[in-house]
């Protein structure tokens, strides 16, 4: 199919992200990129587990005394809900409903911003307590893991917002459909990573 073909909801392909060779290559290439990201986060998780609760003798901060499950749970709900709204966005993309897709992506961005706001609040709270990046091996591994994820969330929000603004007047076509798809795929990835962070860092940390 040609990028400049004029489509209607009836002629729009079922999987527009893979309707062209370029689109297929983008999707395959992005899966390779995500495999590299898995290696990155696996290394950060391994480092955190090795250094958890490790530090100077008589260390003041431990996972049980520091982490608060209600806040982490609220962050988790925001991010999981944003993953659901991105699913709705791709559903409407595949049904050639540009306006609905943009709306659901906008909601995804708002939920992601809410998550980042809570994470910034959490970090500020910990720093105020004296749990800073270089306070101990434990704190360094914690901020490295959770902060790297937060950085990925920020990149995802910038990516989705840029797509929305750049294509606001262009509408959907076979050139930008794969871009929306891989952006949503990236968002799902960082949501899955957060589920592991919530389980390994917060849940297991609080209940021991």
Automatic annotation (TrEMBL):
Chain ranges of the Heme-copper oxidase subunit III family profile domain: 1-206
Family annotation (SUPFAM superfamilies): Cytochrome c oxidase subunit III-like
Domain of life: Bacteria
Keywords from the named record: Membrane, Transmembrane, Transmembrane helix
Predominant cellular place of this UniProt entry's protein: membrane
Gene3D superfamilies to which the protein is assigned, alphabetical: Cytochrome c oxidase, subunit III, four-helix bundle
Membrane topology label: Multi-pass membrane protein
Flavoprotein as UniProt keyword: no
Keyword Glycoprotein: no
Bilayer-crossing regions: 28-51, 71-91, 103-121, 141-165, 185-207
Compartments, as annotated in UniProt: Cell membrane; Membrane
The family this protein is said to belong to: Belongs to the cytochrome c oxidase subunit 3 family.
PANTHER family assigned: CYTOCHROME C OXIDASE SUBUNIT 3, CYTOCHROME C OXIDASE SUBUNIT III
Protein name: Cytochrome c oxidase subunit 3
Organism: Lysinibacillus xylanilyticus
């Amino acid at each position: 199919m040609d990028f400049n073909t004029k489509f209607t909801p009836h002629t729009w392909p079922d999987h527009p992200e893979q309707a062209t060779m370029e689109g297929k290559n983008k999707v395959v290439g992005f899966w390779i990129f995500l495999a590299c990201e898995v290696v990155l986060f696996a290394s950060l998780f391994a480092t955190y587990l090795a250094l958890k609760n490790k530090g100077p003798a008589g260390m003041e901060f431990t996972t049980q005394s520091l982490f608060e499950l209600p806040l982490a749970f609220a962050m988790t709900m925001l991010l999981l809900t944003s993953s659901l709204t991105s699913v709705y966005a791709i559903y409407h993309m595949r049904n050639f409903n540009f306006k609905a897709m943009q709306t659901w992506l906008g909601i995804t961005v708002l939920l992601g911003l809410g998550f980042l706001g809570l994470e910034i609040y959490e970090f500020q709270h910990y720093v105020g307590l004296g749990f800073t990046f270089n306070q101990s091996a434990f704190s360094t591994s914690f901020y490295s893991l959770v902060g790297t994820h937060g950085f990925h969330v920020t990149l995802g929000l910038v990516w989705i917002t840029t797509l929305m603004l750049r294509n606001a007047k262009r509408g959907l076509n076979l050139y930008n459909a794969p871009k929306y798809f891989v952006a949503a795929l990236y968002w799902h990835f960082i949501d899955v990573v957060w589920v592991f962070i919530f389980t390994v860092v917060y849940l297991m940390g609080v209940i021991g």
